[in-house]
UniProtKB/TrEMBL annotation:
Residues 1-27 form the signal peptide. Pfam families: NMT1_3. InterPro entries: TRAP_TAXI. Keywords: Signal. This is C4-dicarboxylate ABC transporter substrate-binding protein. The lineage of its organism: Bacteria, Pseudomonadati, Pseudomonadota, Gammaproteobacteria, Oceanospirillales.
């Protein structure tokens, strides 16, 4: 994910300072958002978007430090937070009671919007002789950081493709070292390019980011509808061509317990200030309400549906919850 270079203030201090400069509003409803560890870039980004929404709506939005997407889904289900950062696989599985949420569905989960895309990288050393995903069969390969979203997605994708590498599970830093010294042929990660670890390894041991075929993309996205086709542009990594891969999204979920008015005001204020958010939180740049709706597979919050329809977006019937019909 793109690095943040400002170092004069910590992300939390910057958000608090900026909030103090915003024009005061009278809040009609307090809304809490579970985010991620405070040291993460996501915590900074969600602090910024909370400030913007609070300044342009009757909502008083506050952020809470959590362990991330899975914890947020569980807390939403228990009613401990009003909204939460969530990734697309987590939202899909939690609502449908599949995967990590088997027999524990959160049927009241509702999506509000997607904040930014996140891109899967599968890379190998150029001198490994591996040029395609099929070449990874039996090869010693790291599927991403232990317990991370990239590892989970990699396991699912390779199962869907019928390819079985010899997965070597370790931390990202250990995987980078193992690629450099040749103990493994490559590694993967889910984030916003360029990935710092990939850039660093590429400088000493040139990498090749593997590119998926159209057939592989179709197979993977049919089996895993929360993933979508995306591209790592040419030149993202030095002297490296463009690569076709899979992407997912990081966004904000609520439950049907959040009032329609709160969901509407949050969605409206967010999209009307997306340009301002992109000035301080680069991952959000380029996102639109249309892109958000097009890449949603979990029912939307009734307030979000109301806003999207208001601005002329046709919301698919599958995304309209019972309370919004």
């Amino acid at each position: 994910m793109r690095s943040m270079t400002h170092r004069l203030l910590t992300p939390l201090a910057a958000a608090v300072f900026a909030a103090g400069l915003a024009a005061p509003v009278m809040a009609d409803e307090a809304v809490s958002i579970g985010v991620a560890p405070a040291a993460s870039g996501w915590y900074f980004g969600f602090s910024e978007l909370s400030r913007l929404v609070s300044g342009d709506s009757p909502l008083e939005v506050s952020v809470r430090e959590t362990g991330g997407s899975r914890e947020n889904a569980i807390r939403l289900g228990r009613g401990e937070i009003d909204m939460g950062l969530i990734d697309a696989p987590g939202a899909f599985e939690a609502y449908n009671g599949e995967g990590r949420y088997e027999n524990d569905a959160i049927e009241q989960m509702r999506m509000v919007l997607w904040v930014a895309p996140s891109t899967m990288h599968w890379a190998v050393r150029q001198d490994s002789g591996i040029e395609t995903f099929e070449d990874l069969e039996g090869a010693r390969f790291n599927p991403s950081s232990i317990g991370g979203g990239g590892e989970y997605i990699t396991d699912l994708v390779f199962t869907a493709l019928g390819i079985a590498p010899d997965f070597q599970r370790m931390s990202m830093s250990d995987a980078a070292d193992a690629v450099v010294d040749g103990r493994i042929v490559g590694f993967s990660y889910n984030g916003i390019p360029p990935i710092p670890a990939f850039t660093e390894v590429h400088s000493s041991r040139p990498l090749r980011v593997l590119s998926m075929t159209d057939e592989q993309v179709a197979t993977a996205t049919e089996a895993l509808p929360f993933l979508s086709r995306t591209e790592i542009p040419e030149g993202t990594y030095r002297d490296m061509p463009a690569a076709t891969t899979l992407g997912t999204y990081i966004g904000i979920a609520a439950t049907s317990e959040l009032s329609e008015e709160a969901g509407y005001e949050f969605t409206r204020a967010y999209w009307e200030n997306i340009g301002r958010l992109g000035e301080t939180f680069a991952p959000a740049r380029g996102m639109t309400a249309e892109i958000s709706v097009e890449n949603t597979t979990t029912p939307l919050h009734a307030g979000a549906v109301r806003y999207y329809r208001e601005i002329g977006i046709e919301v698919p019937e599958a995304l309209v919850p019972p309370e919004a019909e």
